Amino acid sequence: SNRASFRATDFGRVYVTDETDKRILYQGEVDKGEMVEVNSVDDRITVGGRTVNEAAMDDNHQYRVFFEPMSRERSARYKIVDEPAR
After folding, report:
1. 10-56 tens-digit pLDDT
2. 1 has a pLDDT exceeding 70
3. How far apart (Å, rounded) are the C-alpha atoms in residues 72 and 75?
4. How far apart (Å, rounded) are the C-alpha atoms in residues 72 and 38?
5. Rounded distance between C-alpha atoms, residue 84 and residue 73, angstroms
6. The whole model's pTM is what?
7. Which helix (H) or strand (E) covers residue 75, if one does?
8. Strands of 35-39's sheet, edge to edge?
9. What are the beta bridge partners of residue 36?
């Protein structure tokens, strides 16, 4: 379908794919309760009401949303910590 939506059940990462072209159009983090909406008619992907992608999308293609729950601890691993210079 040229529209897809998903409400995040947890903190995690979403992937929006064009199943016809077998490619990922968008990937990013979402908070619990945020709505992910794909609308190829308007060429828009929104997360929590924010437009995250405005690339042209073919209305005849099939779009899907995949969700990967993540723990907050996992994302905290990527914090940059300044080490004192020696």
Report:
1. 999 999 999 999 999 999 999 999 999 999 999 999 999 999 988 89
2. no
3. 5
4. 25
5. 24
6. 0.77
7. helix 72-76
8. 3-7, 35-39, 44-47, 50-53
9. 6, 47
Placement of tokens 């293609």 in the chain: 61
Listed residue (11, 19, 9) closest to 64, CA to CA: 19
Q: Beta 35-39 vs 3-7: how paired, if at all?
A: antiparallel
- What DSSP state is assigned to residue 76? H
In our burial notation (b when 16+ CB lie closer than 10 A, e otherwise), range 9-33 reads eebbebebbbeeeeeebbeeebeee
DSSP state of 22: T
Residue 46 class from Cβ within 10 Å (0-12 exposed, 13-18 middle, 19+ buried)?
A: middle
**Residue type, position 16, single letter:** V
